[in-house]
Sequence to fold (247 residues):
Amino acid sequence: MNFKEASKRFKRGFGRGALRCSSLIIKMLPERAMYGFADGLANLGYLFAVRQRRVALESLSIAFEREKDKSEIAAIAKACFAVMAKGMVELIYLMEHPELIRSKVKIEGRENLEQAFNEGKGVIGVSAHFGSFPLLLLRLVQEGIKTNAIIRFARDEKIERYFQAKRQALGLNTIYSTPRKTCVDNSIKVLRNNEFLFIPIDQNFGSGGVFVEFFGRQAATATGPVIFAQRTGAPILPMFIVREKDN
Fold:
């Protein structure tokens, strides 16, 4: 085993251990304390996740190179870590207490979703890794909507199995993005059953994507939602979950 492989195994093992430990702590916390715990995790993450911090700072520098100085960019990067930690802690807590989701997440524009379903061809929900989007999906499940989400495999198979078991127990169906043919077939099937298909479209889609300008750079954007809509007639409905000041 070479150093790179050993380092990868160590990092994944450490990540699994940190997830288990954090999950046990989060489960025991009262609701009001989980956001303080998340702030602590965010501070540790910003300090020790060197690669992720560098990527965040470089990306923000590209996006705001003419608008913000280094201190402003660093503040945004720290806030990103805080938001991610808050979303992770909140998700783990609410998956253990799903009865709280309905009171935490309110739906606006429900009539647009109902109108789309009335066409009888399924609904394609497009969104991004913006806010706590898994809560958006779990909230739709609680409304009795058959909800399916296209998701990439996590790099760590054991962590993926953990979250897949949680999603399945809460009624959220996963369609993995690979193998591609299986993903396409399953996606079309649920749409033809007049179900809801969620697709986050903000990840790099590589050479198969359509290149559009994003923060002054060309970014490969997913074509899946449009292709599925063309093949099934399903309407496309943009949707986002936005955190309010009181969480």
